[in-house]
């Protein structure tokens, strides 16, 4: 049975796996200096901030987010294509060639 190689499916699987792992790694926090068990401090006083009117949709922030997403997707697709091209350019040896070369 011969295994078939599907570069698009492999690239998509890698991109989805990285996309699923990245948010979890970005939100992880590790407390390197834990404090000993002390009584809990009093909660801070509540400060109320009032906003006069909503400013509306910020197109500059949306553009930055869209450009970042586009850049990351282009990087993922380019990396996948580079890997696929690299694998396609390496010569494959068939079993008959290998067996005849060993004689």
Describe this structure in words.
- The chain is mainly alpha-helical and 103 residues long.
- It has helices at 7-27, 59-89, 95-102.
- The model has no long low-confidence stretch (mean pLDDT 78).
Protein topology:
Blueprint: H1 7-27, H2 59-89, H3 95-102
Short description:
The chain is mostly helical.
Fill in the keyword field for this structure.
mainly alpha; 3 helices
Largest sheet: none
Structural class: mainly alpha
Termini gap: 25 Å
Number of H/I helices: 3
Proportion of residues in extended strands:
under 5%
> H/E series, N to C?
HHH
Number of strands: 0
Average pLDDT score: 78
Unreliably modeled segments? none
- Helix content percent band: 55-70%
In angstroms, what is the radius of gyration?
Answer: 27 Å
| General shape | elongated
